[in-house]
Amino acid sequence: MATAAPHTTTSSHLTIPVGGMTCAACQSRVQRALGKVDGVRDANVNLMLNNATVTFDPTVVSPQALIETIRDTGYEAEIPKGEKTSLEAQDENERKQDAEFRALRLRAIVAGITGVVAMFFSMPLMMYTSHMSGAPSNDPLMLWQERIFTPWFVKYAAWMYAIDPDVLSIGMLLTTLAVMAWAGRHFYTRAWAAARHGAADMNTLIAVGTGVAFIYSAAATFAPTFFASRGVAPDVYYEAVILITAFILMGNALEARAKRSTASALRALANLRPRTARVVRGGVEADIDIDDVLPGDDVVVRPGERVPVDGIVVSGGSDVDESMLTGESMPVVKGAGDAVVGGTVNGHGAFQMRATTVGADSVLARIVQLMRDAQGSRAPIQALADRVSAVFVPTVMVLALVTFGIWYFALTHSGASSSVAAVRGLVSALAVLIIACPCAVGLAVPTAVMVGTGKGAELGVLIKGGEALQRAGDITTVVLDKTGTVTEGKPGVTDVVRVDASLSDDELLRLVASLERSSEHPLGDAIVRYAEARSLTLSRAESFAAVPGRGATGVVDGRAMAVGNAALLADWGIDVTPLADDASRVSAEAKTPVFIAIDGVLAGLVAIADPMRATSHAAVARLVAMGLDVVMLTGDHRRTAEVIARQAGIPRVVAEVLPDGKVAEVRRLQDEGRVVAMVGDGINDAPALAQADVGVAIGTGTDVAVEAADVALVRGDLHGLADAIALSRRTMRIMRQNLFWAFIYNVISIPVAAGVLYPSFALQLSPILASAAMAFSSVSVVANSLRLRTWRPRRAAAFHEAHA
Length: 804
Prior knowledge:
Distance between the termini: 75 Å
Oligomer: single chain
Largest sheet: 8 strands, antiparallel
Number of helices: 30
Number of strands: 25
Structural class: alpha+beta
Shape: elongated
């Protein structure tokens, strides 16, 4: 009887450029639309990067259907053309941001100059309409202009009053129409696109506000007697429309410029890639384009040059500045056999290297891609902003109508004509529409995520997304693996003890090293390096099997081998009592005993010592000073682990645990209500990294560990963990400040624009001043996030001085 195949689902990821998004309401609408599509498992729309990252089932929904969904919401979208590396994608994004900034700056400058000129020409019109109707202007800013500038006009610009008012009005109408059609065109086209799809966004507020002001002014221009006969000054708001457009464009330009600054860390990384490389082919050196370098090419690196691609040094040597990768300013000496990374800076020497990884697979490209993914991700705190953004614009439009109604009702009941009441209500309603700013709400979190993750990269800390960035600040307990995390991870053989007198030390080592050559464990690597240093000839191991948390087994030269801890040999039924005293001795010296069995018989042990990292003690003290509980969790021998823990200042040790035991311990801590960070570097740490609230991989470790982690410490230094936690706490503080000011701005400014201060202080906000306030509110949020660029972690030296 045949059994049914297990049901499997496939997932594809697609990043779609989205054009036309200007505020949090835009972002929220696109994200909701994508989230409702059958087959879409996750959709993340990023206002800062202007893209949507979608995880979907390709058997249910096609990429083209996703594109159509975005277009149906009123925004531009297209399937990305061709595969681009992260570096190429970043270059393209930089060009688009530069072009956007330059276009907005030009429009803002032209509109601003035009608005100032229009304001001066509006003075004669203001006086004319006031005298015509016998009523004062309805706009408080116009009244202020009249009091301040009329004496100056009468003295120095009397010629303006000689111009026919009708000519002035028609000229300003045409000028305003030109500014709206050129500088502010996108406000109206995007508002119309949103309206066609039954939605509203920031463009809707601007378009409705300026559009109503323009229509009212046009009516006053062509039928001034209609207003004058009803006791209403037929004011025109042409200069207000132009200046509102100019102020908003200025805010957009400053915002675009600030957005470029938030990606400065990404830009700096992308710019590290050299454009050319000097390659040796057929014995001839030639400079070729960096994209033409192939794996296996021999590349010459001269003094002072950037290393063009990742590779291995084959001849020569130098000191290499790897600060772009690790944040460590001290150069690293490189010689034959050492790995070098593309983008690092060569020192005074010269060397020849063999290219290993190029293009999208290079370390630099992977870091840039990781940062792009992180900066495009969402922090959980963003959910609050999303909920507000979803209803923000409709709520503001309702408030504007309510404002108009209250003004109309209050003025008509106080004796004013309905026409006067309607105009005064209209001015306040326009101010409400213009001053409301959903942009600040939408930018509050993503700008902080971008700057925070970029700052982390500068420090050699790669944070994989907004959720990890937020969660890191909540950590209460840090669990540290021993080997490669607290210690150097480069152990060396110190002792060889034989039980079988028929085997020499070298023959015992040769057999063990032949088996361990197939292992990725650092202890096995230490044995192999030690054997190679003694020029021993190694054999090929057969039937090799790594036993997680215990050791390795296999067959070498026809002899069954078991190499590992006492638990492994116990599984084979082998008694290690004859070596118990030797094992105790080396364990007391913080050395790890590795037992050896050949053909089912105890043959000896090898003692391996892994020195503690020079920075571990200070880093652990720093973590403790930050209020964190620190635990060492290791599969190593308890006595060895306790010695290292005492040296590092770690108060609690859990030793001799297998990978599933590490997962169980992390889960136990979580069940106690702790937020746990697990730090490790090996394959056996990957399950615990995935279980932890925040998985932290030492970047010098295996790819599996780094892949399973939320944070990667490129420098391989536990100070990076303290930096990550401190950076997370600072970033979260900035996020909360941004959200507070974004909300409080709207909570205060909208009532002021509606006229809440008028009964007590006779203060009414002009739409022009409202536009200036709205423009700078979003800029202030971005500027606050940019403060993270100047943040510096508390260095070890300063820490010791403070705690001496």
